[in-house]
Structure formats: C-alpha cells, structure tokens
Write a structure and sequence with these properties.
Elements lengths: L1 H12 L5 E4 L5 E4 L5 E7 L2 E7 L4 E7 L6 H8 L2 H10 L1 H18 L3 H4 L16 E2 L4 E8 L3 E8 L3 H8 L12
Antiparallel strand pairs: 1-2, 3-4, 5-8, 6-7, 7-8
Length: 179
C-alpha cells in the first residue's frame, strides 16, 4: 500500500513511468525520467508516503495511544535537551520528537541507529503543522492528525528558494487522501 501511495504521488508530480524500489537498508528509491525522493511510513492501519523534488525526504507516522515510560525511553534514545522536554511535557513531546527523528533518519537512509543516537536533533519549539528550519539545510514539520496520531516530515535541500517555498505552506497543504 505504501508503494502504491508513493507511486500515486510521483505520478501527480511528474508524468512518465515510475518504479519504487528499496535499498538494502530499506530506504525507498524512486526511479523515473526525473529525480524524485520518496519516503513511506505506516502505523496500525494508516499508511503515509511523501515525495519531493527538492531533496531527500522522510516521513513518519505514529499512533500516540500507547502507554510507555516516555521519560526513560527519551533518556536512552534522545539528546539531553530532547529528553528534558519529554520529562517536562510527556507523551505528546515524546511522539513529536520521535517522529521527527524518524523522518530525518528516513530521509538520510540511516535508519534506527540515527533515531536513538542520543544527539539533539529536534528544535524545542515546533509550531503545530508548520515548517521550521533545522540545522544543516533541514526543513522539519510535525502535526497531529486524527486521534492523537503524530505525523512528521523532514526535507533536506540546499536551495534557499525551495526552502522558502516549502516554508510558505503548511503540512495541511500537502495532504492527499485516497479512498
């Protein structure tokens, strides 16, 4: 289902024949007439996909209804600043930081080791549904969609014009639903 959604997005972006394959570490790669980047995520019965023409993209979706020891998990996986935020703000902060970290790792192709590397990666202030600049050419966004589900994006682009164009919109502007 994730590949089908990614292919649908790619077809909306550019005509031509598209194939989505995965690298040996599981990162989806789009092959077509022009360069595009894709990412796929799922949680429960939800599937999310993202495609980008401006640089590597990652997407993560996570149901926020699980009960966990969030402070302990954050201390073991997140950077010290992120762990303090989770200790103060709880589950909502944990899922926001986790999904953004996952989105970054999916964009880079580094996978889970980058998610749990104990380095601060997520800015303390992330306005709901809005794009913000992270370090090193990153654009990051997080939103809550239906029933407390966290949705995060990470795009890396050296193009200041592309960054400005993305930042002018919101996560809601990107939403495409298939029924």
């Amino acid at each position: 289902m994730g590949r089908a959604l990614a292919l649908h997005l790619l077809a909306k972006m550019a005509s031509g024949r598209w194939i989505v394959e995965t690298t040996e570490n599981g990162k989806p790669v789009a092959h077509g007439d022009v360069e595009r980047h894709v990412s796929i995520s799922h949680t429960g019965s939800l599937v999310a996909a993202a495609a980008s023409a401006i640089g590597p993209i990652g997407i993560d979706i996570e149901c926020g209804n699980r009960v966990r020891d969030f402070a302990r998990l954050a201390a073991a996986a997140f950077g010290p600043g992120e762990a303090r935020i989770v200790e103060t703000e709880g589950a909502a902060a944990f899922y926001r930081i986790w999904t953004v970290r996952e989105a970054i790792s999916k964009a880079t192709g580094d996978g889970l080791p980058a998610v749990v590397d104990r380095q601060d990666r997520v800015p303390a202030e992330m306005p709901k549904g809005r794009w913000i600049e992270g370090g090193g050419d990153w654009l990051l966004a997080h939103d809550i969609i239906g029933n407390g589900t966290s949705l995060a994006f990470a795009i890396r682009s050296p193009s200041r014009d592309a960054v400005a164009a993305v930042q002018a919109g919101s996560v809601a502007d990107l939403e495409v639903r298939l029924t």
